[in-house]
Amino acid sequence: MLSAQERAQVAQVWDLIAGHEAAFGAELLLRLFTVYPSTKTYFPHLGSCADKAQLLSHGRRMLEAVGVAVQHLDNLRAALRPLADLHAQVLRVDPSNFPLLIQCFQVVLASHLQDEFTVEMQAAWDKFLTGVAVVLTEKYR
Ligand code: ZNH
Question: What is the value of pTM for the model shown?
Answer without folding.
Answer: 0.95
